[in-house]
Amino acid sequence: MGRSRAVLVAACSLLIAVACPATARATDGPGPVCDHQPAEHEEAPPGAVPVDPGVDGDLSAETAANPPGTTFWLRPGTHTLGTDRFGQVAPKDGDVYLGAPGAVVDGRGVNQAAFTQRARDVEIHGLKIRGFAALQDQGVVNHDSGDGWLIENTTIEDNAGAGLMAGARQVVRHSCLRNNGQYGLNAYQAGDGITGLVLEGNEITGNNTGDWETKVPGCGCSGGAKFWAVNGADISGNWVHGNHGAGLWADTNNNDFLVEGNLFEANDAEALFYEISYNLVLRGNTFRGNTLVQGRAFAARGDNFPAAAVYLSESGGEPRVPGRTASVDISGNTFEDNWAGITLWENADRYCNSPANTSTGYCTKAAAKSSCAAGTIEKAPAYDDCRWKTQRVEIHGNTFRFDAGRVGCTSLCGRMALLANFGTFPDWSPYKGTVIEEAITFGQANRWHDNSYAGPWTFVVHDTSRTVDAAGWRAEPYSQDECSSFDGGTAGC
Q1: What gap in Å lies between CA 361 and CA 396, rounded to an integer?
Q2: Compositional bias (Low complexity) spans (predicted)?
């Protein structure tokens, strides 16, 4: 490390992460992958089919001409796939693509996708894949969500749409998902959804360059990675930073996520957004400088909703949905100079069949859609089963540090939250009034304890109109954060 670089890193350690260059990290742990890929596959392995660059469609043609399970070795240089939008590679089951150092697959802003169709157990190693013009909600690599793909030591960058789609048992390891127009990864598969997804040791950065939440207000269609109906995901050792929106966003009937040992830095919105989903272990992660753009936007327009680094919306533990846990366990994490901490929220008007459920057509995993209607929803068991609940959340053993001066805020920051809204519609809703506010605050086993706090933290509780200090948070009727420290010391009774 040169002297100027060392000085910059030292200076960054005194500032919030968002003020520092993306590569100027002041911590050990997950780190740069983009532009730091190992030089592998310098020669073709025995039996591999070599593919020359500079010949339009050669990679596609070689793939079509060879049997399933063929290994292709892409020589250094730029490989292109044809002159119209449908130029693409359609792998067969078990095909393997190895990139020599300097091998690039370039869509030139013309081709919509690079690797397509539903072949199983395809592998991609050591390639750079860029410049593809995927459509909204579609992806460049594994366009059709084939199962069992392995993406390793590969860079997928500067594409429209999603850089990468996912299928069941997909592994993405030591790869770079950077500066893609909508998502770095879009984990969606039609039908029963994805099982057994692994993201390990990747750098996920700068995605949503198309600013989709502005382009299509309320779409919920952006982020470093988006997960939809994924059952079982291990997300470990990744550096998720600088995404223009949420870092990781699990939206609608996801379950059984382990998010461990990741570094979340300087994402514009939530570092982790877990929405109408179930059963999560979030442990041993570092959250630094997240949600500043979103938090400042809320504050500027006088919106007092508690924007947070970790946001749970209608998500909690559910023993009837099988997983490695039946709770949401948030433990052993470090939160440092984010806009705020953790928000647990439940929308009283959002449930199966409600017009406020933006996941149109989806119901909870506990209820039959037909039972969640006027005349039946107010009766047991539908009354309980038709709601996605923020319940059984345990937040313990975490460190929360907040310095308003470093974050650069004067209000509506440095908050923790446990709240819901006053139920209002539709007219057949059985959840009107303060029913859900009372439930999330007092009746759904949501508990903070044994945490360490440093800085001027406040706590929004029950609804957005109620903010208390640490003493009020710990006192009845809330009785939260037993055995926690509020002076930066070690937690414990």
Answers
A1: 35
A2: 45-58
* Residue 3 domain-assigned (yes or no): yes
Query: Do 113 and 156 meet the contact criterion of CB atoms below 8 Å apart?
Result: no
Considering only CA atoms, which of 249, 210, 198 is closest in space to residue 228? 249
Cβ atoms 376, 382 nearer than 8 A: yes
Asked whether residue 2 is assigned to any structural domain, the reply reads: yes
pLDDT in tens, 415-436: 999 999 999 999 999 999 999 9
**Rounded CA separation 371/387 (Å):** 12
Nearest alpha carbon to residue 374 among 355, 348, 397: 355
303: tokens are 């919106």
Give CA separation, 156 vs 126, 340, 407, 432, in Å: 11, 31, 32, 47
Residue 133 · residue 111 · CB < 8 Å: yes
Confidence of residue 492 (pLDDT cuts 50, 70, 90): confident
Integer Cα distance of 438 and 423 in angstroms: 11
Q: What is the pLDDT of residue 12?
A: 36
Residue 489, pLDDT above cutoff 80: yes
Question: Torsion angle, CA of 12/18/19/21, rounded to 10 degrees?
Answer: 70
Domain annotation covers residue 99? no
Q: What's the number of domains the chain is made of?
A: 1
Residues 6+ apart with CB under 8 A from 191: none
Question: pTM to 2 decimals?
Answer: 0.93
**147: which 2 tokens?**
């199962």
- Chain center to CA of 401: 23
Residue 2's domain spans which residues? 1-27
Rounded Cα distance between 286 and 333, Å, is 6
Q: What's the rounded Cα separation, in Å, for the pair 44 and 146? A: 26
H or E stretch covering 205: strand 203-205
State which amino acid sits at residue 64: A
At residue 156, the 3 state secondary structure works out as strand
Does residue 3 register a pLDDT over 50?
no
Average pLDDT across the chain, whole number: 93
- 19 in a domain, yes or no? yes
15 pLDDT higher than 70: no
